[in-house]
Amino acid sequence: MSASLGATATFARGIHPPEGKHFVAEAAIEVLPTPKSVRIPLLQHIGAPCEATVKPRKSVTAGDVVGDAKAFVSAPVHASISGTTARESNTTLPNGRHVPVVPINAADEQPLEGQALYDDVLGGEWPTQDLDVAAFTSEQIVQMAREAGIVGLGGAAFPTHVKLSHHPDHNVDTLLINGCECEPYLTSDDRVMIESPRSVVCGALLALHSTGARKVIIGIEENKPQAIRALRHAAEGTAVEVQVLQTKYPQGGEKQLISAILQREVPTGGLPFDVGVKVINVGTCSALARAVLRRKPLTHRVVTVTGAGIKVPKNLLVPIGVSYAELIDYCGGLTKDAARVVAGGPMMGFTLGSLDVPVTKGTSGITVLTHQEVRKQEQSNCVRCGRCVDTCPLNLVPTKLALAARYNNTEVAERYSVTACMECGSCAYICPASLPLVQLIRWAKILVHAERAKEKAKAEAKAAKALASTADERPSEGGSEKKEAKPEKEAKPEKEAKPEKEAKPEKEAKPEKEAKPEKEAKPEKEAKPEKEAKPEKEAKPEKEAKPEKEAKPEKSKASKSEK
Fold it and tell me: Which one, of 38, 48, 53, 102, lies nearest residue 75 by Cα?
């Protein structure tokens, strides 16, 4: 194992906000006592939402599937405690999305609690050096990750089995394990690396085998010395390498991590596998090891409850679905000067309007800020200093995007790649005019997505209309042929009469029938009957009209008879 690939690696641009990790950096993970009830959201990931697989008043055991979806980009959800289900209801997540939830009322006895639960999730023996990854096929690892409902625990919540899938068109040579945890205040990943480094290494080796990559590297910022030492020791004798990185925000972004460690640049709008890389979070690796080696689904995760506005900041191992309010109460409650509760960290988190919100798989922390920390700064006009451009880790132009949002100009927003923005907040943090750049960019994204949806709907409607018109034309053509076929059937005697050269009188008789007012009445609007012979459809009567001129020889016959 390589001890380090360089201790000063980093990416271009970025910022250095106050870390704020001192609140809980040394606080060991505690197990939250089993709550009286939990609410399991049916959408905790990127992709298709789940549908409830259990009915109300159904007894469930911790680990049972309570929601699933057939879509590939999705992940099932499991009961995090044993108990009885209640009627399905709805809740609002921190990002403002309304989703259905499956409530579970806790049973008196739980299969695992306290230290036993901790050992089952993070503790115990993890066979790093003796791990035989060849005992599992890539397909088996992908399937077990899917069945366990594992998603990215760094915040994005992208289904892990999708990343682990080996695609022949994706030439992935490197797997990066993200242990940076660059978001200020949060320390959940740091504590997992310190207290359960071998589960992280096992998960990294399993992911390496599943993706088909040739090497795996764990990236950690230099402000986590305990985690660095723990992982180096756990990775001895394995294929896992450890890369120490400079402390900078947002070092934990996928594109920034790839740039810092491998010096590869992911194109705007591209994905890591475009440059031969896949990225997985350290917490996700630990969950993957538990799913494959212990056959346990993702039911718990580590959440940091921190900030100057919380009485006793802690790192907690909590069941999915427990409310934010219960975590805050377990940490002593809010201080008198608490002003804002944020789901996540202060840079990329969402301000909560209510504490009655369930913890999801992507909940990494709860940050409580004081009045002093959230004091409102007066906004001014943009001074064209260019600091936002200089600090943007994706090399975007935040001022242009914000201006496009103010004027609802989706064309300009798309031209400047608004959807590529990861909303890290670096531009807003550095802006001397205190402009709400992130909020404006989020609004621009909403406008762009709405415009795209509108254009897609128009295209689908146009295609459906074209398909319907094509379908209408086919039966109409057949119908016209049938309508034209009817006079042909009636005219059969005419056709039969034509070859009868001797039956000239019969031919004369037919024009007499054509002279009937019924047939002449149809083209009344077309004026004279002589002009009736001009339409293409009535071409046959024109030919039949010739016998009128041939009436002369009939007169000659008559004259002969008279003679």
Answer: 48
